Sequence to fold (363 residues):
Amino acid sequence: MKIYVESRDFKKNLSFGGKTVRQLMKELGLSSENFVLSRNGEIVLEDEALKDGDKVKLFPVISGG
Amino acid sequence: MNCSRDNSKAVVELKYVGERLCAEHFSSLFEKRVRRTIGKAKMLDRKRDKIAVGVSGGKDSLVLLYLLKKMHYNIVAITIDEGIRGYRDKSLPFIERFCRKYKIPWKTYSLKKEYGFTLDSIPDKKLMCSYCGVLRRGMLNKKARQLGCTKVATGHNLDDETQMILMNLFRGELERLARTGPITGLIEDELFVPRVKPLRECPEREDVLYAVLHDIKYTDAECPYSRYAYRNIVREMLNKMEDRYPGTKFAILRNFDKMLPFLRKYYMPKEKPKRCKKCGEITRGSICKFCEVVEEFG
Fold:
């Protein structure tokens, strides 16, 4: 399935073979602990299932100075 | 996964209490915690205090501003523009939009305009966080006082606080540690505006979540100098501990608060603060740290 992922440092469309947000984060090489996650504008936990065309946004926890 | 309290969709898992919460229950818990933090330490008084809120445009300071406004405190937002290109200039529009939306008075003061230099012009990047801290604290205190404010509130969160506690312990800075806590300093001096930290019991991750849930638009730009900070190593270590032993950060803060009266008894300077020979502000020596930095780089 195709997933659009957006964060502070990148925006990309990717082909994703997994099922959940947790697997997506693993594929991106990122830790869920460091982000608050939303799917199609709604905050989700990492066990949320994804479907084709979903937009995932990552809000970094660490920012500022 | 559903909320442990009402079975609606959960937005957060709070491992340290073994609960999953929906947006509504999370927001209610978060706000209750901030009210309790303010009340427990008698940080702020709605009738008597005019509060200068130090605002950087990041999630912590804007969440703090949002909450103090919601709780009907008398507030004015203050931003110190220390002149970090690609960081501070990006954050100013967020603060402006926020303050306009919520009708909060906002004052911004520039290091360049007042003292003729920017943080970017300081060559020693490794000590940048120390210089920046001295300059920002100094300007915030002075400007807050000139505006007639009786308290300065900052957006330090649980992660900031626990990192600061460990950093000072590791460095053996017990005197500095004794001056921290929910109300910083406690120097009784007409020139000193006491600083309070109403978010000190809010984990950084929850500040982000609260901001997103309440549509608080903040800048998530990282300060280019933060990579030099010793703090990053302590942060990483603390996050690993928290992941493995949930509740570690709260335990550090609570136990530190219990130790604080003893630290203050033995390590708080007994003598009254002096006046800086150059600027007349509070100092322990003859010239204050602020003037030392200005003299070196201004």
In short: The mean pLDDT of chain A is 90.
